[in-house]
Amino acid sequence: MKLYNTMSRSIEEFVPIENGKVSMYCCGPTVYNYAHIGNLRTYIFEDLLHRTLQRAGYSVTHVMNITDVGHLTGDGDDGEDKMEKSARETGRSVWDIAKFYTDAFFSDEKDLNIIRPGIVCRATDHIQDMIALIKRLEEGGHTYTSGGNVYFSIDSIDDYGKLARLNLDDLKSGARIVVDSNKKNPKDFVLWFTNSKFKDQAMMWDSPWGRGYPGWHIECSAMSMKYLGEHFDIHCGGIDAIPVHHTNEIAQSEAATGHTWVNYWCHGEFLLNDSGKMSKSSGEFLTLSVLKDKGYDALDYRYFCLTGHYRSQLKFSYEALDHARSARRSLVDKVSELKREAAAPSAAPGEKAKGYMDAFDSAMENDLSSPQALSQLWLMLKEDIPAADKLAAIYHMDTILGLRLDEVEAAGSERIGGEDEERLLEERTAAKKAKDYKRADEIRAELLERGFIVRDTPAGPILERRV
Ligand code: AMP
Ligand code: ZN
User: Fold this and answer.
1) Residue 387: pLDDT above 50?
2) How far, in Å, CA of 117 to CA of 416, rounded?
3) Residue 344 to residue 445: CA distance in whole angstroms
C-alpha cells in the first residue's frame, strides 16, 4: 500500500507500527451547522482509505472526534465560539445544537455509505483528558498564562511548523499582525480559555487554571492518544488543517511525549464551487439534503467524488453531478442485468475477471487512485466475461467503492411502488407523449414526495426507491 505523506511531501510505502494493524485518527465535524458537501468529500476520502486498508488485510482502528466545544470562527484563537454563536442565533441551547447536527452528520454518513469509524468521541466527554494533557505540557515548560488564558509557547520547541514547512523567520519579521496581545509569539495558541468573551458562555468546566473551556486543537491530541496511544499510524483531515490545526496538534503532542506522534499525514483536497473553496462562511453552501431534494441520490455524490483523486481539487457543478448520476445509474442497470443472467456471483472468478480485480486493488493501493480503479470496473464490464464472474468482480470492487451494488435488484424481478404509483407513472408517460411537460414534471415531483425517483431507461420509465 502506497500513501502520500504530507510530512515528507512524497508517496511512501505504508508500513504500520504494529504488523497487520492500522491506527487512524480523522478530525471530525464541528457540529454547529450541517456538513457541506465539501466537508463530506473529506469523509468520503477517509472512508476510501479505511476500506482500502481493510482490503489490504489490515485490521483498522478508526477514531473520529466530534467537535462540540472550543472551535472559534477564526483559526488564530480569534472570533467567537462556533457553537455558542449558533446557539445564540437560533435561540437553542449549545447542547441541543450539538445533538441536532451530530445526528444530521451521522445521517449523511449513512446515506453516503460511509463506514462509521469504530470510535466516535465527543470533545465534551473528554475535558479531563485535555486538562491532563495541558498539565503535562505545563510541567514540561511549554505553556504560559496570560490574560486569563493558558497558551502553548511555540518557542519552547525547535521544530514548530514542520508539517506545513512554515518559515518562522518570515513570521517573526512582522508580516503578521498579532491578533491577541497576550501572545508572546503570534503563532502561540490557546490550550485553555478562562477569559470568555461571553459572560453567559454555556459550556464551561473547572480546571487548575480556572473555570473555562479548551482551545480547539487540544481535543484531537488528547482523544487520539487516549484511543490510539502516543504513537500511531495515520492522521487525516482536509488540507486546510495543515497550517494551523494539524501544526498545533503536532506541536503539543510531541512536546508532551518527546517523540514522533504520527507516521503518515494524509490530507484531502478541496471541493470547489464557482466562488472557490466551498466553505460554511462564504459562497454557496450546499448540503446533501439540498442535493437529495433536487432528486439526486446520495450515492450520485459519492460516485462524483470517486471520479476525482482525493489529492486533486474537485470542481462541483450540477452538470458534473448529472454525469455522475447517469454513470452510476447505468452501472446499476448493468448490475441488474447481470443479476438476471447469473443467479449468484462465482465463488472463484476466472483469469480475466481476476485480472481486473487485481488491477482495481492495485489502483486503490497506489495512493487511493479511485479514477483509475473506476476505469477498471468499466473496462471489465465491456469484456466478454461470464456474468457470474463479472458479478463477483463487481462485488469485490464495490466493497471499496461503496455504491451498494450488491443491493441492486435483478432486472424485471420486482415492481417497485404500489398501484397508485404505477398509475402516476402511466399518467406521466401519457403526459410526455402529449408534450405536456409541465404535468409530467408535476407527477415526477409528486412521486418524489412519495419516496420514489422516476428513471427513464431505454425500456421505459421505472421507479427507484429514494434512499
Ligand atoms: P469542519 O466541520 O469545518 O471542522 O470541517 C470538517 C472537515 O472538512 C475538515 O477536515 C476540513 O478540512 C474539511 N473541509 C472543509 N472545507 C472543505 C472543502 N471545501 N472541501 C473538502 N474538505 C473540506
Ligand atoms: Zn483535529
Assistant:
1) yes
2) 33
3) 36
Other beta carbons within 10 angstroms of residue 229's beta carbon come to 14
Q: Which atom belonging to ligand 1 lies closest to the Cα atom of 67?
A: 4
Domain range summary for the chain, segments of one domain joined by +: 2-268, 273-407, 419-465
Q: How many residues does the chain have?
A: 467
Which CATH number applies to 2-268?
3.40.50.620
Distance CA 94, CA 109 (A): 22
Q: How much is the pLDDT for 156?
A: 98
Sheet bearing 143-146, strands edge to edge: 143-146, 149-152, 189-193, 213-214
Strands 452-457 and 276-277: unpaired
Backbone angles phi, psi at 309, to 5 degrees: -75, 140
Which has more pLDDT, 419 or 145?
145
The answer to whether the CB of 29 is under 6 A from ligand 1 is yes
- Three-state DSSP at 345 gives coil
Q: Which of 24, 33, 42, 75 to mutate to test the pocket of ligand 1 (most atoms within 8 A of CB)?
A: 42
Does the beta carbon of 221 sit less than 6 angstroms from any atom of ligand 1? no
Query: Given ligand 1 and candidates 39, 44, 281, which is best to mutate, with the most ligand atoms within 8 Å of its CB?
Result: 39
Decide yes or no: CATH 1.25.40 for domain 273-407. Answer: no
Q: Which ligand is nearest to the CA of 44?
A: 1
Ligand that lies nearest to the alpha carbon of residue 27, given by its number in the listed order: 2
d(CA 405, CA 450): 24
Residue 376 DSSP label: H
pLDDT digits (tens, 9 = 90+) for 99-122: 999 999 999 999 999 999 999 999
- How far is the CA of 332 from the CAs of 12, 166, 304, in angstroms? 35, 47, 15
| 305, 325 Cβ separation under 8 angstroms | no
Ligand 1 atom nearest residue 29's Cα = 2
Residue nearest to atom 18 of ligand 1 (CA): 38
Note whether 355 and 379 are within 8 A (CB).
Answer: no
52 in contact with ligand 1, CB cutoff 6 A: no
